[in-house]
Amino acid sequence: MARTNECRAVAVVFNVAVTLPKSNDKSDAIQACIEHIDGYSVEVFFPYYVIDGKIVYGETFAQPGKHEIFAYRNAAIKRPKC
Fold first, then answer.
1. Where are the domains of the chain?
2. pLDDT per residue over 62-76, tens digit each?
3. For the whole prediction, is pTM greater than 0.85?
């Protein structure tokens, strides 16, 4: 769909285990990989814990994305930093 210009932005969301950036602690997290046709790419992490059967979210953090979906269009674009 990206190659045929049927979409301008894409998000892929899945569950991961991550090392938290301010410590060496590990956490489950929801990861959203977001890309836009104009070259923006970011990975956003929403750490969470289950405490007494309830979901408690930690501090959200982000990092530059991998530019995988629209890479064919954006080879010459400078990648933005988070």
1. 9-64
2. 999 998 888 766 555
3. no
